[in-house]
Amino acid sequence: MATTSDIRNGLCLHYNNDIYKIVEFLHVKPGKGPAFVRTKMKSVTTGKVLDNTFSAGHKIEEVRVETHKFQFLYNDGEGYHFMNTEDYTQIALQETALDRSDLLKEGEVVTVLINSEDNSPLSVDMPASVILEVTHTEPGVKGNTATNATKPATVETGAEVNVPLFINEGDKIKIETVKGTYKERVKE
């Protein structure tokens, strides 16, 4: 049994007859009253996000997980197919197991959390950033750069990201996967 002091991002736990993954947490110690932990949890089965508050010292039932590297192969409409990079076994996951499926490119290597009790895949952790090519964006307007102006751009996976005006079609850009935001232009 773990307690609230063991809560961290990515921790999987049993809660309300389901398995949840901690997405965000904040330890709060108010001036008056007992301390507590405010969490944002995502169900690994339904994808539903739940805000919950645990009182300090509350016992939580942790799920033992193993992490394995998997390569994304393809999406056939029914699921996302991955291959283990060590033993080449393949698994198919529903979209609810992925946080940012719109930024997932074929060949991308991700970390899959697997429940060590029954070997079922729980969720997919994307890399911190991905490099994608811009397939469509409007040309920037000259003289409109006095502020941090941005424009929408569509990348090769179909996701739409706001980028600075100097980004053109064909440019490769680095995107932060947690927020889905533009980070920098990548030179070949």
TrEMBL record:
Please state where this protein is localized: Cytoplasm
What's the domain of life for this entry? Bacteria
- Which of UniProt's keywords are assigned here? Cytoplasm, Elongation factor, Protein biosynthesis
What Pfam family is a match for this entry? EFP
Give every Elongation factor P C-terminal domain span: 130-185
Q: Which SUPFAM superfamilies match?
A: Nucleic acid-binding proteins, Translation proteins SH3-like domain
Q: Could you state one GO cellular component term attached to this entry?
A: cytosol
Which SMART domains does the UniProt record give? Answer: EFP, Elong-fact-P_C
Question: What job does this protein perform?
Answer: Involved in peptide bond synthesis. Stimulates efficient translation and peptide-bond synthesis on native or reconstituted 70S ribosomes in vitro. Probably functions indirectly by altering the affinity of the ribosome for aminoacyl-tRNA, thus increasing their reactivity as acceptors for peptidyl transferase.
UniProt similarity note: Belongs to the elongation factor P family.
**Which named protein is this?**
Elongation factor P
| The encoding gene | efp
